[in-house]
Design goal:
Helices cover 46% and strands 14% of the residues. The chain is of the alpha/beta class and 662 residues long. It has three domains: 3-45 and 210-295, no CATH class; 53-205, no CATH class; 390-574 and 641-654, Vaccinia Virus protein VP39 (Rossmann fold, 3-Layer(aba) Sandwich), CATH 3.40.50. The strands form three sheets. A seven-stranded mixed beta sheet has the order 10-9-8-11-12-15-14, sandwiched between helices. The chain has a four-stranded mixed beta sheet with strand order 1-3-2-4, sandwiched between helices. A four-stranded antiparallel beta sheet has the order 5-6-7-13, with no helix packed on it. A hairpin with a 5-residue loop joins strand 6 and strand 7 (369-371).
């Protein structure tokens, strides 16, 4: 058969017939519409449940001649005018419930503002979650004066604030009243004149990125529109559910909120949502351009001057090179003394992208992995700077604040080995800003939690009340001063950062009372993921990690110091970040942050390339999250993952045991 005959036998496909085929296929497979209906339905039920858990202040006539309660300040947004009855009712509610910070939701709070807040916070568990980020509506906040004093804030309640500042205020004060912050509906409080839309500044105050959020909103609206046009009745039901969601959540006679324009907002929801998303995107882009222009002009405010100062400092330090931050390479293992060493990985600083290369070597006899050559104390200061504090402080705080479940699991490991009331005293070494101690108080409320760390964060933890006493300095320096004072000492992901793990274990033995417990958690260098991912395995954590200690080595060192190991966990200690960490480190390696103060001037082409790399990595992050979920489930049910925990008891005979080890 010739080519002409073959072509004649092929069916003719026109654009219209192709569209009809696509429509039939779409109608036959309504799974997109079904998923949208399920997601919107679950979100609606969740929002309705959360709304029902918000308490409502008691109403009453305006109080005339009644003295204002002492010790409280009420901060409001511009245009919001609370009456005396609302203030008195809020104070009474706070004192009755033992609250120190109370965010007040106006009775006529707008539908989209209410839905946005309910997406961010579950009021039922908000107060009890000591690590939860502070959330507010941005209209009025009642604060105890003693909390303001501890936070170092001297604010004038009479000078109204913009909503973003009130949201930031609640976010800050939640850290100083972690279990005494809540929210309530104030029926007598009004939003003030005119509708208010959540702008880019308010989203940033909540810790959200306005640009990506606006893009996600536009994409969601486009998906709904496509589903309603192409997915038959399923898509139309999904679009209708989205359209009616405000009334489904806020409508009805029993609802605590009464948005003034609920019917109008519901009818115009798709258009208003699109308008809000576009306005947010434009505002975010304008802010970025303004910031870039300001920095190009040399900086006009304190933040830009501070960045310029940091850049100058890093420039002076890097001019002398980074080799001076490293000691001479040692020829033997710091754990067992063996000379059988081999290079395990060689990597740059993938955490921050600072200049330098670092080598981890492994002992052929005991398996100990260590940085060789190791950083000097000056080098440690250089590479730690702007990671946990300063420029990187907020990001680190966000990560640590999301680990409440892990912190509670660590504290719960002691439950079979201590009394029902828990230990009387606990020292958390390497406490950082005290996140573990703050979370552990929910399990052991009668325990005195103290913290020790090198950074200034331990002082902030003391001011917040997350630790009872904060010690700043090296742990071995406090061994004699704190000898025998603690029933528990914890070192969670701390030993791997130290220069001499043996000295740290000796200090722990010294400060523990006889019969006291030592809890340790470490990354496991024998993990399968360490071999699979190589230099991209996150727990290598170069250049901060100095020693990665196999569990057998730690057991031996504890036994030599008079400890008895009571429990060892591998699977439950796994941290689900192997694949996500590998993607993040690879992105940092390929496209380092051009705005970091240690980076040289970067041309626009490289800036554009960084955006391309980060955009291309989004599907990789999504895939990595799925792989980590599967890996975590397997690790916690199988033979362990990328970390391990160990709990040991100091035997009475070890009270005066001499230090051992190299």
């Amino acid at each position: 058969m010739n080519d002409a005959a073959k072509r004649a036998m092929k069916p003719i496909v026109t654009p219209r017939s192709a569209a009809r085929s696509a429509d039939r296929a779409a109608a036959a497979v309504p799974w997109v519409g079904a998923l949208l209906i399920a997601a919107l339905g679950a979100g609606t039920v969740r929002a309705r449940r959360r709304l029902g858990s918000i308490p409502v202040l008691a109403g009453g006539p305006a109080a005339v001649g009644v003295p204002r309660p002492a010790g409280w300040r009420l901060f409001t947004a511009l245009g919001v005018e609370p009456d005396s009855a609302t203030f008195l009712s809020a104070c009474a509610h706070a004192e009755r419930e033992g609250l120190r910070v109370l965010d007040l939701l106006p009775g006529d709070l707008g539908a989209e503002s209410a839905l946005g807040l309910l997406r961010l916070v579950d009021p039922a568990g908000y107060r009890g979650d000591r690590l939860a980020r502070g959330r507010g509506a941005g209209y009025a906040v009642l604060v105890a004066e003693e909390v303001l004093a501890r936070a170092g804030l001297d604010l004038d309640p009479a000078a109204g604030a913009d909503p973003a500042r009130l949201i930031t205020l609640v976010r800050t004060l939640k850290e100083y009243a972690p279990d005494a912050t809540s929210m309530a509906v104030a029926p007598g409080l009004s939003c003030g004149p005119g509708p208010r839309r959540a702008g880019a500044a308010e989203l940033r105050a909540h810790g959200l990125a306005p640009g990506p959020l606006a893009a996600a909103q536009c994409a969601g609206l486009a998906l709904l529109a496509w589903a309603s046009l192409r997915r038959g009745p399923w898509g139309k039901v999904a679009a209708g559910l989205y359209w009616l969601q405000p009334y489904a959540v806020l409508g009805g006679p029993a609802g605590p909120l009464r948005p003034a324009s609920l019917a109008r907002d519901t009818a115009a929801r798709p258009l208003r949502s699109l308008d809000a998303a576009l306005r947010t995107a434009i505002a975010a882009a304008a802010t970025t351009r303004t910031t870039a222009s300001s920095e190009a002009d040399g900086g006009r405010d304190g933040e830009h001057r501070d960045r310029s100062d940091r850049s100058d400092r890093y420039g002076r330090e890097l001019a002398a090179g980074t080799d001076r931050f490293l000691e001479a390479r040692r020829a033997d293992c710091p754990w067992c003394g063996s000379g059988r060493l081999a290079v395990r990985v060689t990597v740059p600083d993938l955490l921050q992208g600072k200049p330098g290369r670092f080598v981890l070597e492994q002992c052929g006899d005991c398996g100990h992995v260590f940085q060789n050559p190791r950083l000097t104390p000056e080098g440690l200061e250089f590479y730690y700077r702007d990671f946990y504090d300063g420029r990187g402080g907020e990001g680190a705080g966000t990560v640590f604040g999301s680990m409440g479940g892990t912190y509670r699991d660590r504290a719960d490991l002691l439950r079979p080995h201590v009394g029902a009331a828990g230990p009387g005293s606990w020292l958390d070494v390497g406490t950082g800003h005290g996140h573990f101690c703050n979370a552990a108080r929910s399990l052991w409320p009668r325990t005195r939690f103290d913290g020790l760390d090198m950074g200034d964060g331990v002082r902030e933890a003391e001011r917040r009340g997350w630790v009872d006493v904060g010690f700043q300095g090296q742990f071995p320096e406090f061994a004699a001063k704190l000898a025998g004072q603690y029933e528990v000492v914890s070192m969670y992901h701390y030993l791997e950062h130290t220069r001499d793990p043996f000295a740290e274990l000796d200090a722990a033995r010294a400060v523990l009372a006889p019969g006291g417990h030592l809890a340790i958690e470490l990354p496991d260098p024998t993990s399968r993921m360490a071999r699979l991912l190589g230099p991209a395995w996150l727990p290598w954590f170069q250049p901060q990690h100095q020693h990665l200690i196999p569990a057998a080595n730690l057991r031996g060192a504890l036994a030599e110091r008079g400890f008895t190991v009571l429990a060892e966990e591998h699977g439950p200690a796994h941290q689900g970040n192997d694949f996500l960490g590998a993607v993040a480190l690879t992105v940092t390696r390929l496209a380092p942050d051009p705005d970091s103060p240690w980076s040289p001037a970067v041309p626009r082409v490289r800036r554009a390339l960084r955006h391309v790399v980060r955009a291309a990595a989004l599907p990789c992050f999504a895939g990595a999250a799925v792989l980590d979920a599967v890996r975590s489930a397997a690790a916690r049910r199988g033979d362990g993952g990328n970390a391990y925990r160990m709990l040991a008891r100091k035997d009475h005979a070890a009270a005066g045991a001499p230090g051992v080890g190299r």
